[in-house]
Amino acid sequence: MARIGVFLCHCGTNIAGTVNIPRLLEAAQRMPMVVYAAESKFSCSEPGQASIRAAIAEERLGRVVIACCSPRMHENTFRKAVAGAGLNPYLLEIANVREQCSWVHGFDKEAATAKAIELVRMAVAKVARHEPLSPQVMGLTKRALIIGGGIAGIQAALDIANAGHEVVLVEREPSIGGRMAQLDKTFPTLDCSACILTPKMVDIAQHPKITLLSYAQVEGVEGFIGNFRVRIRKKARYVNEERCTGCGTCWQKCPEKTPSEFDSDMGQRTAIYIPFLQAVPNKPVIDTAHCRYIKYLEWSQEKEGKKPPECRICEKLCPTGAIDWEQQDEVIEEEFGAIVVATGYQTFDPAAYAEYGGGAYPDVITGLQMERLMSASGPTGGEVIRPSDGAHPKTVVFVSCVGSRDEHKGRSYCSKVCCMYMAKHAIMLREHDPEVQSYIFYIDIRAGGKDYEEFVRRAQEEAGAIYLRGRISKIYPEEDKLIVLGEDSLIGRPVEIAADLVVLATGIEPSAGADELARELNISYDSYNFMVEAHPKLRPVETQTDGIYLAGACIGPRDIPETVAQGSAAAAKAVALFSQDSITTDPMTALVDPLKCVGCLVCVEVCPFNAAEAQLARDGRTIAAINEGLCKGCGLCVAACRPGAINLRGFTDQQLLAEVTELWR
Amino acid sequence: MKMAQLTPAGTIHPFPRSGLQVFVESQSGQQVLRCYQCGKCTAGCPSAYAMDLGPRRVMRAIQLGLKDEVLASSTIWLCLQCQTCSARCPAEIGIAEVMESLRLLAAAERSRPAERDVALFHRLFRDLIRRWGRIYELGLGALYNLRGRHPFANLGLVPRLLSRGKLPLLPQRTKGASQVRAIFARVRAAEREAPPSEAKEGTDASRQ
Amino acid sequence: MPAGSSYAYYPGCTLHSTAREYDVSLRLVCQKLGIELRELRDWACCGASSAHAESRLLGIALPARTLQAAEEMGLPLGVACAMCFSRLKLASHELADGDTLDLVGRIIGRGFGNKATVVHMLQVLDSEREALPVKRTLEGLKVASYYGCLLVRPRDIVGFDDEENPQIMDRLVEATGAHAVPWGFKTECCGAGFSVPRADIQLKLSHRILSQAKAAGADCVSVACPLCHSNLDSYQQVMRREYEHEIGLPVLYFTQLVGLALGLEPRELLLNRHVTDPLPVLKARGLA
Fold first, then answer.
1. What are residue A503's DSSP bridge partners?
2. Which of B56, B167, C138, C260 has the fewest CB atoms below 10 angstroms from its CB?
3. How far is A353 from chain C (nearest CA, A)?
4. What is the ipTM of this complex?
5. Closest-CA distance of chain A to residue B97, Å
6. How large is the average pLDDT for residues C20-38?
């Protein structure tokens, strides 16, 4: 017969202010199988826990009920406390009399107290039927996978590798570097972005513990913390990386030109290309959509339409014979213990703003395009000129919040960095040309970082940028200028400016394919496709899925210092994981009774974690079995099982029925 | 743009949930508090340059409960009802509907409209429809000039329209005219029973 | 979008007076395409912008009378004027509320179910666009399609096309063989009813639209609303004085363009009645 102890927590006035604890205590003492009941101001505190342990020892308690806050808060704390007294930690049940009682019935103390008594009775009935459970101990692979080779992924990779563990960094573009490689200068220090980034990129390439898989993508992920199995597709470059020396002859001579993604379509690249001069790896890639010879090969299949030239100039000129037309995609499978998602961001496409021209006006450009113009290694060699006629603009207008704070365009959030980069552009423009006049239309200035506010002041006081508070309604061309219609809401008048160049401060959104990746990894993402953290305040680099961590702008808009910090933070989580030699899994998993299982395999269909699988029983029947490592204890299979053959440890049918029955008494 | 604000306008004591705001919200169905004053409405309003407040400041005035200021503004009468503000508002507020509710409030409270000519034009238009069932352009123009005391306004176009047979001298006839007159009368009766301008909560912001 | 060949037809006041060209060209085009237009008997004004300036109920009741007549005829209601179209759509939207429907039924003196479908004639012709029997292609003519502010706004009431860059008229223009020039002022307001009480505002707005159309390379402007037509067509000489800017852009109803493409003659389509004469431009393109 179980000896049950009931511990009531006041939680200050959180519970005690609504629930009548003395009455609850009295009721608990009279409940069947309860041999001990006590109250405490804060059960989770040091003395609170100590008193629980002491009571377990003195009263020889076999089961424990704690009436307190949500188990999501302190179940783990109390499990440790109970274990500390020598009792199996799963012989504990929490009755949530705070979030599900005192906090929601604050106006009806009578009802709240009655409900609390019922909740405790139910918990007592359930815990009487608990069995001791033991977590499984499993091994782990001390290798980390970093998905995304921007600054977040680079930082995470370096930190984990420097701690002595193997790292594989997968980047889907031909080179690592991400958005930071495209930037000219970074605020507020005005460091040259590439100059501070490229040494880290080279560190990645040279680090003995880091394997860089560029032009590669994660295709499939299976497994669980410590034991992930990942399928990675290495896309065919059509260039043999061993033979290629990065001399550059091929892309210098390639005749086919197409807009360069790296230059945000402000410049061109060739069909065989490296995205930028400091690319890591410095090995080119052939873009099959634009390569003339590949088109020729495709044409020779069907022989339809015009015959493309049989170019092959790169092959002819390559001094090491590195061009390999036969190269195929290669799919590899690797094992990892931890995964860091650092897939970064792309910028909002202003085509959605037809009132700004919808992309049709060449002199209306985005913030990223402005970065490329300003960059000395960019398509204009660092000269800020109008795309339409190459003239130097004298009047430049900046439009804030394009694709941000705009529910009408489906983006309610603030992109955080645009106010800062507009100020940066204004300062840099003045440095390029002292005669340029910048007008910045803003709604609110967000400059919360270190030295940020001073930076914005500098844009106004030193660079002479005129700040006008008002959202732009329309941009249209008139002769060779662009008319910008806004309002200065501070003085309260409509404003019209004839601009030579307009820069739309386009906002941040998650990189394309983020949602697909999240689904593959089984991690949460929100309606904007940003990855969701385990807790926005206290667990900013973890996901709800153990072993998968997040870093950088894939979580939400943020600047470089935050991103780098998060890369290191995610690395710390991975390194902490790897500091153990084994991991314990949650024992509250599902269990199939082979005697009752009929082999319908519905559980296999409904399991979201692929934990249920078909198995051959010894008598030749097919039955189901649960992989405890994968099982998350969600209970779907338990509900779906028609013969009732599956039970969930810690939430068995008998335990749950006991609770319900108690309620009806 | 006319600037009423550059003259001393008095200190405001903002009144949340004023009668004005409650009326506007219930009449127009728009959530006025969602406006974060970005200014895109005024920026895109084709007649804002001629207005005193402009749509953004009208929204702000509603948020602060400044009923007198709003009803006395030229803004609500110079509104072209072109829907540009509503179409572009990032907070998805139907600003044009808010403007409409203000005009209805002004009519119900018999506020003296700041744009006399615009209000006159609307009144004459309504009178002519009530009389004839369909619009009578020549009549409208003539009455507008007479009643508005600008006898030679808009005359330049008349000869050209007449010569091209585009301006009928007599009003169009329709048997529907009597039904239209009945509609006007029934509407008036219905509105007398349930006046639209009842503001249920609060009073409006006091001004010194 | 009902694809019937019969419509209850509501011309709107101006189509029988200052905008007769629109009515005449529309009827001729529909005749050629086998679309039957049955004009509502004894129809009355929709109330335009003036009814709802004073009374919400009046602003719904006047168009409701038209909706009821169309419902009685059992046909979809085809509307020519963009202002009328807007008022009818808005009224129909308001009448979705049962109490309002009852009250308005009593006010117009006839109960009805608010069942009539309201479409603009652009939508009707758009449904014929793919099989347009073009006899005289308008190739070489560059047309700026001007929609005006009410035709495609508010989108959730009107229910078709894009609010900033609509395409329905452009597609129809292209179907005639003419080139619909891309331009950015398709839905900017022309000044609407301010042409009488605040002619200064209307002139400024109409001038800006015409300048943009001209700068976009258009030979002419196509419209779907009599008020837009009047505002853009009638004041170009005044604009020349006021802004020292020679516009010289004829303004045509889209039905006139389609009519020309179907082989009708300019005089039949009353092209000679416009203030800004379109015949020189048409002659220069071999179309008249």
1. A365, A398
2. B167
3. 8
4. 0.91
5. 17
6. 95
